[in-house]
Request: fold
Amino acid sequence: MKISKKIVLLGHFGVGKSSLIRRFVENTFSEDYKVTIGVHIFKKNVSIPEKGTDVSLVLWDLEGNDDISNTRLSYLIGTHAFIYVYDVSRPATYKNLESELEFLKEKQKNTPITVVGNKEDLVTKTYLKQNVDDFGSLTDLYVSAKTGHKVDFLFSKLAEALI
Amino acid sequence: MNQDERLSILKDILLTDEREYAKKVEEKLKIVEDIVNKQNELSERVNPIIDEKLNDFVVEIPKTLGPTITETLKSEIRNSQDAVVEALFPIIGKMIKKYIQQEMQILSEQINSKVNSTFSFESLKRKFKSKRSGVSEADLILQELAQPILEQIMVIEKGSGIIISEYSKTQSIDQDMVSGMLTAIKSFAEDAFEKENQELSYIEYDNFHIHLQNFSSYYIAVIISGPYNVMYKSKLEDKLLDFAKNYINEYDIKDTKSFTKKLEQYFKNNVL
Reply:
């Protein structure tokens, strides 16, 4: 039986939501920044050999918003999992991380949220350790859409957790 | 003066001009030889530089001159629209003519096949209908041929946009992507107008009409090609409501297989 799951990616402008999806779906990356307007839908089938099944991930790439409360709430309905993306090299994108996550939890109760620090290639490990108080405890994974580091891992683990 | 000296003087007298001439020729030959050698040496040194510059030129020209050329072309087209139309008109005209001819031929073949089956039940029924209604038989045939075609039906979960069930005669679209995008468009439109209990019910895309029938936890998207009019819409709505009310229960919504089976059975004959 075919299983489909709706995954919504959220975060500030330019944190790399679309780049993460493109890296995962098409295995491509571009330095050119193209702003997402509204929403963009992507799809990729992920095979879970341990469970002998395939999951079709329908990825909703929402336009960036510096304030999550401005997000169109109807896009969040029926979501099976959120991926909240921030840019590890831009403090403005994670300074309100805690309150933004609270907002999501309040609006979509019982929907799992994976917090991802993107652009890991731009900073050193020391930097990540130094800033652990700001985002470390809330972050599930550091990834890089540019190098592809841990991008497949992120989506595969999520797909596995959803079935 | 011995014999050798005399011979030498005689040679000088007889051959002086020729020797000078031969010497001049030799000098000129040497000059020519130098020039040729120098050119060869020069070309050996200069050719790689020219090749490199040419390669750079080929790589750089689209970057440096590309935008200028594009902009010039755009402004030329903008400023000379009449000339562009003049140039394109014969080509587009031919294309349209060919397309219309082809479509007319198909239509003519279909009409012929309908007319040829004079004694069929359908034909007799049409004749009777024509006499009774006063509409000519030709008009009735045209009406029969211009029927809307139900291309695809998708049952989509509200909110998530995940497809619950689907029925189509030809698989031509990525259902997950389309159902997701339809749901996003629906959500946006319904959110943006900020009026409660209003739902998007119709989208037109190229030659396709997408009828959206809303239910409480799901909606049905029906993709139709051909003429889509109020009468057809009304019949379709009746069919969809009948299907949802009499054939679908709450368990079917969770059971994709059962839903798809019922959907196929109900819409297989495409009779509306």
